[in-house]
Amino acid sequence: MARLSITAIFWAALAGLATIAPIGAANAELKIGVVNVPRLLEEAPQAKTAMQALQDEFAPRQREIVSQTKDLKAKEEKLQRDGAVMAENERRNFEKDLRDGQREVQRKQNEYVEDLNLRRNEELGKLQRSLLQEVQTYAKSSNYDLVVGDGVLFRNDSIDITAQILAALQAHFKTSGGTAPKPAATPAKPAASPVKP
């Protein structure tokens, strides 16, 4: 009998909460926005500036590798053309120099690719932190309760705030004199906000 009354009380309380919960939820409106992160990374002026800076930084090394590759190609053609008339020692030395040159160019190409990827990842990390800060600043100033990015399976275009974020990024880019902003080393995690009833 005592068990029956505890169960009855539990179900009665649950039913009462079920009738109150929709009323509370109806009063609380969430402001939700969606950001297309790949579009921000592609169209933000800070991203274009960072990528151009990388190209400028690595262009001399790339030109050097291209030049050395052309020189090796010319040596290969000379060996094919004149190899038959060269003395045995001269041809062996020429082939050895050609192999050594090919190894050197291959080593430089590998170093170039590794260094470029490392720097690209560094710049991408800085850019992502900067974009995250901009999204957070915009969301706070516009009183958004939730802003989502990657992993959205469906969204209504009316909640897409990517264009507004891009406009803010462009405005900050212009005020900073056309340079990519240097974000703080690591943005502080926002405190967990209480869930609205």
Order of helices and strands: HEHHHEH
Return the structural class: mainly alpha
Tell me the fraction of residues in β-strands, as a range.
under 5%
First-to-last CA distance: 36 Å
Strand elements, count: 2
CATH architecture: 2-Layer Sandwich
Which regions contain 5 or more consecutive residues with pLDDT less than 50? 10-15, 20-26, 183-197
CATH homologous superfamily? Skp domain
Give a quick account of the main beta sheet: strands, pairing sense, barrel closure. Answer: 2 strands, parallel
Strand order of the largest sheet: 1-2
Silhouette: rod-shaped
Count the DSSP helices. 5
Give the class-level CATH name: Alpha Beta
Written overview of the protein:
This protein is rod-shaped. It has a single domain (31-175), classed as Protein Binding, DinI Protein, Chain A, CATH 3.30.910. It has 197 residues and is mainly alpha-helical. It has helices at 2-27, 37-43, 45-82, 88-141, 162-175; strands at residues 32-34, 146-148.
Task: For this entry, give a set of tags.
197 residues; mainly alpha; Protein Binding, DinI Protein, Chain A; two-stranded parallel sheet; 5 helices; 2 strands; rod-shaped; disordered C terminus
Q: Topology of this protein?
A:
Elements: H1 2-27, E1 32-34, H2 37-43, H3 45-82, H4 88-141, E2 146-148, H5 162-175
Parallel strand pairs: 1-2
